[in-house]
Design brief:
Helix content of chain A: 25-40%
CATH architecture of the largest domain in chain A: 2-Layer Sandwich
CATH class of the largest domain in chain A: Alpha Beta
Low-confidence stretches of chain A: 1-29
Mean pLDDT of chain A: 93
Number of helices of chain A: 17
Largest interface: A-B, 51 and 51 residues
Distance between the termini of chain A: 29 Å
CATH topology of the largest domain in chain A: Dihydrodipicolinate Reductase, domain 2
Oligomer: homodimer
Chain lengths: 452, 452
């Protein structure tokens, strides 16, 4: 078998022609997908909630090192009326015991970023064929290569649970792109523009807007995420932005990222927040944060498009992912909720409200699955339902996940590459081809139907 | 006298402390400013119209090589009731005869881009102390250095007539920046996002949206501007975008551009326009256009800000300069007409309509000078009035122009630097310091009062 032949197979599988013969996924006498959750902090609990709502899933094990988080998770499970899963805890490597369970169909990893690669690698090496991981895939470029190589070796699926790919507006625009409404796509923009100051710092008890502690004195994300702002300067969170636009221009599936360049501003926001909320004598007022307040990244693509990404998490601002999708016939600008299509928009050179367009091109997935249940209960306005749904339905069908390890690696690798670019004085750096040339042959199969 | 000491003098002059002793500007028996206009095409006619409305100006000479444009210009002059100026015409160097006139206080140049440097140089060498030029200052980096050196040598003022610096929203935001409403400025964006296809091509008779000819068969801007899209790939028109944001962060006046990087998309828009309007057999359908449809440029500044500029002129879209001004306390986004200021905006993490803020901080210049006359009659919603007003009032006071040769050189030099960056595979290039270090000492004097 050629090194990457399985890639082709899984693509075919997704298209419905075959199943992967060599993978035994589930015991035949049980149709339910057996899931183990590594990490049941606030994000893991959101996934848990979605999993527990499904009748095609059994959560058979959970793992965490934080007793408070474990307590919250078991409360959720108790309320659901489902069987209490086996609980693994006590030390950071308790998850390795969990991976020794013989009947796991898939794991979902929702731990601090720096744990993802190791946990994915251990899961793959334990023989698990479906690994769902929270963003991002890893920290260094080497992390991303390691996971790609291990997934190939194990003939396993690694899906990064990038919920932003399932936003209703994003999927409607993907639909428009595929129906050539924008013409040939020329330029795309997106980002993660989210005032995280109240997330990066808290009082160690309440997760949001409660204080100026982080690290060991912090709770939830403040416990680990903030350290990345102390030590790293780059686009630390690129996948919400890049994921949706990558699906629109077939990245790793007929197209690829060629090169990348990042610029970073000075660093003011986090320090000023600590001083404002905690006073200039607070110990954290002496911390030197490395992350530039705004990091702006450009990418060249093989088919001639450019992508602009912005990371803006240290300053006061309304939340905005700021998508822009522009082709030879017109463009979508999310920030002003507008679309303009030549010869079709109401007035020459004037914006249409995006609403009419997005409704007209509402994606089949949303048409079929959207209801009060998925919308309000399942997190982030429904997108958490869709990303878990995509993962589980792929497992049930024994086909490739809707987003795969190459998507995960390419999207996540933007972070270390942007760090390198900034470190080298804004040098433009080459983007690795994680598919080793298969991007020329692979097909875009993301969200092609109303199934998952 | 130190090499650049006059710079300091002119700054002082603007602040009202003195006049430049060595410059004899006007005959004492005539208070009117004597202006000669080189180039009276459509843009030159707009300036002419503004000049003729003023009682403090005499237009004493005009020059053009196009008989049709000269006819339109003389019609405007006739209708104004003012004295017909001397007319220079017949060949591309007729302007040199105009420059031999002894009583010129100032020239205004509104010719194709590639003529600006030469005409400015000749004007300066003819002893004219006030030169107003349409954007841009020159084509190559060397052009910009030449003009800077000649202005220094001649102790003369070169003002680029960048009307965008006078937009009502831009000036209100400048006012907010100076009153610290946004806190310390961190990041800025702007651009020139203007569907110019109907300008770059016409039928040789009507200037806009009339055909697919350019060059010798084109009229007005299609006659010359389009050639730049055939032969050059870069941000060809940076000054409307960068000018306003440069005034907000004291570029060349306490701050400076340090480095620049540009990315360009593939080139589709102009060819598709020719085919769509003229058919695939039209001769211009065989032209290979070099300009990427969207060129996105980043700049690092000495004080740690980043600036993002976009040039987007080949695709269908609504007009947008897309300003964004972001500081430690909040930001303005022009594209959705919104402002957010921490602790002051109506709702936490939600946009305010910009309207209330812009009205509250309306700039003294607009408060004083805005009326029906300046608004409707004087071009581009009043800004053409303000840029001419600034130029003329500086001449009357014998002080430095509100924008000077260093502003003009730095803003215009973005074009050749972006071409170099793209040509070198998106390399980040150093930005020259046209002030030779004086940026550390020069003060921002732009639009400080309600005078001009």
């Amino acid at each position: 078998m050629k090194r990457r032949a399985f890639v082709k197979n899984t693509t075919l599988a997704t298209a419905g022609f075959s199943i992967i013969p060599s993978i035994k996924l589930m015991a035949n006498d049980d149709k339910k997908v057996k899931i183990a959750s590594i990490g049941v902090g606030l994000r893991g609990q959101a996934h848990l909630d979605n999993l527990l709502r499904r009748n095609d899933v059994d959560v058979i094990a959970i793992c965490d090192i934080d007793e408070r988080m474990l307590g919250m998770a078991t409360d959720i499970i108790r309320k659901s009326g489902k069987t209490m899963p086996q609980i693994f805890k006590g030390d950071p490597f308790a998850y390795k015991k969990l991976l020794e369970l013989k009947n796991i169909d898939a794991v979902i990893i929702a731990t601090p970023w720096e744990w993802h690669t190791q946990m994915i690698m251990d899961s793959l090496q334990a023989g698990i064929k479906y690994v769902g991981t929270e963003v991002v895939l890893g920290i260094t470029l080497d992390d991303h290569w390691k996971v790609v190589h291990e997934a190939e070796k194990q003939k396993a699926n690694v899906m990064m649970l990038e919920n932003a790919c399932y936003f209703r507006d994003v999927l409607a625009v993907l639909n428009m792109v595929r129906q050539n409404v924008f013409g040939e796509i020329i330029h795309l923009q997106a980002g993660y523009q989210h005032d995280l100051r109240g997330v990066k710092f808290n009082n160690g008890v309440e997760p949001y807007d409660s204080g100026v502690e982080f690290g060991e004195k912090g709770f939830s994300e403040a416990r680990w995420r903030t350290n990345h702002s102390v030590h790293r300067n780059g686009d630390l969170y690129p996948t919400h932005g890049v994921g949706p636009v990558a699906t629109m221009i077939d990245i790793n599936r007929g197209n690829r990222f060629l090169s990348l360049n990042s610029f970073a501003t000075k660093t003011r926001g986090l320090h000023e927040y600590v001083v404002k909320k905690g006073g200039e004598n607070h110990a954290n007022a002496r911390v030197k944060f490395k992350l530039g307040d705004i990091v702006t990244t450009q990418l060249n693509c093989a088919n001639g498009e450019t992508i602009l990404l912005q990371h803006d998490t240290n300053l006061p601002r309304p939340y905005s992912l700021g998508y822009r999708v522009q082709g030879t016939k017109g463009l979508w600008m999310q920030v002003n909720h507008s679309i303009y299509i030549e010869d079709k928009s109401t007035k020459h050179h004037e914006w249409d409200d995006e609403k009419t367009w997005l409704e007209k091109y509402d994606h089949p997935l949303w048409k079929r699955w959207h209801n009060k249940e998925t919308d309000s209960a399942a997190g982030h306005g429904g997108i958490d339902f869709f990303v878990i749904h995509g993962f589980i339905e792929a497992i049930k069908r024994r086909v490739a996940t809707p987003l795969d390890v190459y998507d995960a690696a390419a999207w996540s690798a933007i972070t270390p590459l942007s760090e390198t670019s900034i470190e080298l004085g804004n040098e433009t750096v080459d983007f690795p081809d994680f598919t080793s040339g298969q991007w020329m042959y692979r097909k875009n199969t993301f969200a092609l139907t109303d199934e998952f």
